[in-house]
Amino acid sequence: MLSFISFNHILQYIDFNKVQQLFVYDPTDQLFFSTSFFLFFFFALLIFYRIFSKKKNLKIYTIIFFSLFFYYKNSGYFFLLLFASTFINFYFGSWIFKAKTHWLKKLLFISVIIIDLGLLVYFKYTNFFIQIINGVASGNIQLLNIILPIGISFYTFKAMSYVIEIFIETMEPTNSLRDFVLYMYFFPNILAGPIDRAVAFLPQIAGEMTASKDDIGRAVFLIMSGLFKKAVIADYIGLNFVDRVFQVPLRFTGVENLLASYAYTVQIYCNFSGYTDMALGIAALLGFKLMDNFNIPFLATSVADYWRRWHISLSTWLLDYLFKPLQMSFRRMRIYGSALAIFITFLLVGFWHGANWTYLVFGLFHSTYLAVSLLTQKFRKAFYDKVHLTGTKFLKAFQIFITFHLLLITAIIFRSDSLRTARDVFHQIFRYFHGVVFFQWVAGYTQVFVLIMLGYILHFIPKSVDNKIKNIITASPVYVQAFLLALMILVVVQVESAQLQPVIYFNF
Question: What is the residue extent of each domain of the chain?
Answer without folding.
Answer: 31-206, 213-294+376-507
